[in-house]
Amino acid sequence: MTQRRILVTAALPYANGHIHIGHLVEYIQTDIWVRFQKLRGNRCVFVCADDTHGTAIMIRARQEGRSEEALIADMRAAHVRDFAGFDIDFDNYGSTNSETNRDLCHRLWAELRKGDYVTEKSVTQLFDPKAGTFLADRFVKGTCPKCGAADQYGDNCDKCGSTYSPADLINPTSTLSGATPELRSANHLFINIEKLHSFLEEWTQSGEHLQSEVANYLKGHFLGEPLRDWDVSRPAPYFGFEIPDSPGNYWYVWFDAPIGYMASTMEWCQKNGENFDDWWRDEASNLESSPSSEIHHFIGKDITYFHTLFWPAMLKASGCKLPMKVHIHGFLTVGGEKMSKSKGTFVQAASYLKHLDPAYLRYYYASKLGSRLDDLDLSLDEFVDKTNKQLVGGVVNIAARTAKFVGGQTLCETYPADGGLFLFAAAAGEAIADAYERCDYQTVIRTCNELCDRANTYLDEKAPWKLAKQPDRAEEVRQICSVGLNLFRQIIVYLAPVLPRLAQQAGELLNVPITCWEDSNTPLVGTPVAPFQHMLKRVELKQVEAMIEDSKIPDAAVTIPTTANAAAAPVATPVQCETTSCAATPAAGTQPTDGPEALEKEPLVGEMCSIDDFTKVDLRVARVLSASHVEGADKLVQLTLSLGGDVRRNVFAGIKSAYTPEQLVGRLVIMVANLAPRKMRFGMSEGMVCAAGGGGKEIFLLAPDCGAVPGQRVH
RNA sequence: GGCGAGGUAGCUCAGUCGGUUAGAGCACAGGCUUCAUAAGCCUGGGGUCGAGGGUUCGAGUCCCUCUCUCGCUACCA
């Protein structure tokens, strides 16, 4: 068989969040495919990277008071750790915010310019004057112009489903600052992909590169009419790469993200003395010594058109190699529903690993993945069941019930008669390999389960444990166990891409490592058997439930209690003391009637934050030691806060419109003690005091009830 | 609305080119076994293949109509 050269990518995880079990569907799927190709003896390189650019990262970094670089470095480290925990084995893991990527963006851009694909047009967008940035549709909310539903995003309405431009929204507000956005125009750069229409038609419809549903989808949605120009630039401020021939404009994150695939390949090439063009240039691969390479992208269905229209267009226009195949998978649901933070089904990779073995999830996903775009459902009962019944009770059990009789001995010198079992399973190998090749892992697992059943039935019939009681039949026992262990090893070869650790353990048990697919064709003979050791623990539903419990972020954590709740809750006696300027708590028994205005002005944050996220914020009780006006500032008051002992913090607080320095001295406040220090015009501010209200006279400092002392943490 | 994918046992699903009596796992019932991590093996009950029509010697499979479910509907990460 000729050795293929295969470059594989998985989608670049965005540096704005942690890896969760939904992401893992893709990385596990891809890792299995890569390990399969390697086991088959193909050269296969698996590259990935963090996707680091765009408005969302910029905003988050700003909110956290640190640089984008610091944010993405932390997130990258977390991603790398999570992937390693699930045995996802990248040959290179890069970042789109690298000089390699910048260079490649420049190169492709030059090609696009040369081919006259770039045009410039003025775009009118909403601009947030307070945050000083243009607003993507999702950062604008307002009232739907069609049906009048409040609190709708800038591009379409949840309630009536109509789509519109954010400029049409009634009473639009920026979700970043609460400011009213204004319309501003800026020049954007576009790629004219309509020039490649006939190429895209041919490439997408050839049947070779895409699943048929995807080809149909593209045909129905995009290819039936002229393709619109693709807007690939964003005006400053934007976290990304500045466009060399268009100062003040940056490449849109989706321009440089797929180029990140190339950049990661480039880094790998540099480390391994490989030639980049062998992998990404079309014409370079005609040498007989280096057969043509294949590029395979694995992605989720949400980013289909980026990878099946824009990206092939960019590659074609710049003379690069096109993907051999884009493998697209569906989303994860848990218990038939979308993952939910409040239900605890939004499980982060790190939380999973705290409770469960990664092999379970790899096996479970494999048993459910087919070659189509169907969503994959994680049913917790089924998860436990498959792990215990199939993996432990089926596969591992074959070794467990045979190895103990021959541990310390060797396997038979010639492979005994087994009624054709080994040959049968060897013959199944090609069908299993075909299933792997087309990502139909459920067929792989089903076939392996049938092989397991055959092996277990064989052992049941031969009952070596009975013969083991008769010393004169020891050789027979050895023969039966040699068969059993070889059948076990054969199945493990087939499952090695899914269960790399188990394959490793099987190699240790039989003292011959599993190195290639052909290991399934030849039985081991005469080799020593190590004493059997547990390979994989059974899982208990309790452990799964604990993981779910751990992942729960109750709605209550982000929901203002309703008046009914507040009245039902045990009422703490309101305490009036010198630190609180007033007690807003109503007298027990009265029904407070709070209006909806505050919420309307600042809607609840839709995105949940985990307890981990919350505990990152170190809230402390602090006492105002001194307060003074700041010369030349019209909103700021300078505070010296004490956290007890001699720990002091200098804080500039924008509360001058509501408090005089005299009112502040001596009182207790709540401060964010670990907010990154920020250089302000008047000096360093080393924290932030917490207050409610919209500004102006409406600023209300938070204060603890009586008895709290400086330095205490707020939980 | 348009487009796409589906509807097969109580549940999750397989079913190739149209071809014998529609399959598997789980769950359920009964039996065997006691080597193995409360593991293993055998047997059984359970189906108008969403509905209707058509093509055919023959339809879960091909065609048409209807119905229900899910997903997508680009300058949005």
Q: Mind explaining what this structure looks like?
A:
The chain is an alpha+beta fold and 715 residues long. It has four domains: 5-107 and 250-334, HUPs (Rossmann fold), CATH 3.40.50; 117-195 and 211-248, Beta Complex (Methionyl-trna Synthetase, domain 2); 369-520, Isoleucyl-tRNA Synthetase, Domain 1 (Orthogonal Bundle), CATH 1.10.730; 600-701, Nucleic acid-binding proteins (OB fold (Dihydrolipoamide Acetyltransferase, E2P), Beta Barrel). 38% of the residues lie in helices and 18% in strands. The protein has 24 helices and 26 strands. The strands form eight sheets. A five-stranded parallel beta sheet has the order 3-2-1-13-14, with helices on both faces. Strands 20-19-18-21-24 form a five-stranded antiparallel beta sheet. Strand 25 (691-695) and strand 26 (698-701) form a beta hairpin. Helix 18 (474-495) packs antiparallel against helix 19. The structure holds one RNA strand of 77 nucleotides.
